[in-house]
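User: Please fill in residues for this 435-position structure.
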């Protein structure tokens, strides 16, 4: 099949497409006498390595052996369903012998493992046609008698290349299985690579590997013959990577362990310090003759902290009524539970009257003045008559408790600051209290 000169001139042009005489066959496009594009060998259902046509014709080709061709006359407007070449790597031999082309890399061409550019200058200019040459000769190409006497002889091996377009100029060995294919290549010094493909079996290469391409998907495995020293370099690199990765992982793991141990010890110190403070607080309470009340007793006295018994809640914690308590009767310190037990306040706090439309009317001017006087006397005691000068800093209606006779009592000293009696001025760095 040849191309036309133009759409109007059907004279044959220099581009010709056809099958090669290889076994198995391949499809070629020739530019005159030179290959321009090449498929891969036929495996009985498709030409391997031709990705686009595999996708377009998923069921493969059906060959007609009686030299007949059919045309569907109903298709009036022909269209292009597949075309080659579509990128630079499709051009035959663009990277030269032992060069491999990858359309997803820049530059597209590079040498196969164990090979170097034949001309560094040409490769730097983007002229890759000269290809690559082997860095280290194979064992069979060296003076093996000298190597054997010195004990340095090491057998060649194979490097596996995945997802490859198999090279041109192969030799088909139909009688060899996979292991036999490898042994045949090792026993022949001219063999540079082999592949074992389903539907084709064993193919080997004895010359320069031409028209090699690496795909992102599909393709076949190609086993490239290399000297022992080239394979050992990669093995050493892998060992270095494994050692480096293991070392880094061990350091990170050890760091995580040390950090966790540090946090655990820090938490232990904090817990120990908290327990010490609790004991010191308990000791100070004993000195002040302030009894320690068990948490179970407080549960029983407050009906398991029933909301119906709740007077209010300050910054230190909830304040609950207790029928046997007068003023500050005691405290409870059990783990994270820290409670102060106050006397029972029948009328709860001042805010329950001020902010309730029904109860507000019970506070006539006489009662209000009486409450204000009580608050003033309490503040006077805190500011002038106490052994330490106390500034409350959170005086509000909910912190003023009322007994049976509507006597006001200041409560909740969480935000309070204490000063010496002789101290007239103090500074603070944070604003607290209720606005």
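Assistant: Residues filled in for all 435 positions:
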């Amino acid at each position: 099949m040849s191309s036309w000169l133009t759409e109007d001139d059907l004279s044959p042009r220099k581009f010709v497409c056809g099958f090669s005489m290889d076994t198995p066959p391949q499809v070629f496009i020739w530019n005159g006498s030179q290959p321009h594009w090449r498929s891969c060998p036929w495996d009985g259902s498709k030409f391997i390595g031709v990705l686009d046509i595999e996708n377009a014709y998923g069921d493969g080709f059906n060959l007609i052996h009686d030299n007949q061709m059919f045309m569907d006359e109903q298709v009036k407007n022909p269209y292009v369903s597949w075309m080659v070449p579509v990128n630079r790597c499709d051009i035959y031999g663009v990277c030269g012998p032992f060069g491999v082309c990858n359309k997803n890399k820049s530059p597209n061409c590079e040498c196969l493992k164990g090979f170097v550019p034949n001309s560094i200058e040409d490769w730097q200019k983007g002229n890759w046609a000269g290809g690559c040459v082997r860095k280290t000769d194979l064992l069979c190409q060296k003076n093996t008698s000298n190597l054997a006497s010195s004990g340095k002889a090491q057998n060649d091996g194979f490097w596996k290349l995945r997802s490859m377009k198999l090279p041109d100029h192969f030799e088909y060995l139909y009688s060899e299985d996979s292991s036999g294919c490898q042994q045949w290549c090792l026993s022949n010094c001219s063999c540079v690579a082999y592949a074992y493909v389903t539907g084709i079996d064993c193919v080997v290469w004895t010359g320069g590997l031409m028209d090699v391409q690496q795909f992102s998907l599909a393709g076949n495995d190609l086993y490239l013959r290399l000297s022992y020293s080239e394979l050992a370099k990669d093995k050493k690199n892998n060992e270095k990577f494994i050692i480096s990765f293991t070392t880094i992982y061990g350091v990170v793991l050890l760091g995580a362990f040390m950090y966790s141990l540090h946090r655990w010890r820090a938490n232990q110190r904090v817990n120990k310090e908290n327990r010490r403070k609790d004991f010191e607080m308990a000791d100070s309470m004993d000195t002040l003759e302030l009894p320690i009340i068990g948490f179970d007793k407080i549960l029983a006295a407050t009906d398991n902290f029933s909301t119906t018994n709740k007077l209010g809640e300050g910054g230190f914690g909830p304040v609950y009524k207790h029928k046997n308590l007068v003023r500050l009767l005691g405290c409870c310190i059990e783990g994270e539970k820290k409670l102060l037990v106050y006397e029972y306040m029948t009328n709860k706090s001042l805010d329950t009257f001020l902010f309730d439309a029904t109860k507000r009317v019970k506070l006539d001017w006489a009662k209000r003045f009486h409450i204000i006087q009580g608050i003033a006397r309490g503040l006077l005691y805190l500011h002038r008559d106490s052994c330490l000068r106390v500034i409350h800093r959170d005086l509000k209606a909910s912190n003023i408790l009322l007994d049976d006779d509507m006597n006001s009592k200041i409560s909740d000293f969480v935000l309070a600051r204490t000063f010496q009696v002789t101290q007239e001025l103090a500074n603070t760095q944070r604003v607290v209290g209720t606005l």
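For context: Residues 56-71, 146-151, 314-326 have pLDDT under 50 and may be disordered.
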